[in-house]
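Before going further, learn to read the protein records used in this course. The integers have meaning only within a learned vocabulary of local backbone shapes. To see the layout at work, look at the sequence and tokens printed below.
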Amino acid sequence: MKPTETSSVNYEIRVAGSLTPQWMDWFDGLVINTENGETLLRGPLTDQAALYGLLKKIRDLGLPLVSVKKIPSQEKKMNTSVTPAKKLDTKTLLSTLWIVVMINMLKADILSGFIPGAAEEVAKTSVSTGASIPQLMLIGAIMGQLGIAMIILSRVLKYRINRWVNIGVSIVTIAYIWGGMSSYPHYIFIAAVETLCLLLIVWFAWKWRMTKAHS
């Protein structure tokens, strides 16, 4: 059985002929407006029975019916026109931040290649760290691939492992960035941007467990 509606519905009824506002009581309090030889009755009616009763009164007065229109309430209009903002998924956010980090790391490497004596700087780093130049290059390649992998892993790993892997790799990457610190302004600026993004990754990954955990 279909449930009976208890809330009133607004109607707009147009008839041919002119009526004065004094007829409002006769038409159950509906607002009466007359224009261009037609009368517009507008207002709420409790149910279909009330509508049929009103139409009977119009017929009894001999007024030709022009149209009957149901008007959606303001509440319904609001519910259909306003959609809540969708919250950004944590996995998507973490993956996007890793993309920003990797773009900046690539930018730093490209700009550093234009520095006079860059090869000599690598040789000095090799001597100070005790690692050969190929080993230093391998470490840089591994860190680059690790960051690229995090772009994908942040989207596919399950909640618990995803959270801790993001925190751990971010901390290691920060250490790598500042461990190979250069005094050139461009490197300091880019390193600061990378660090900010990595700290955001740590923050969002840590906060993730306090919101909605995904298994």
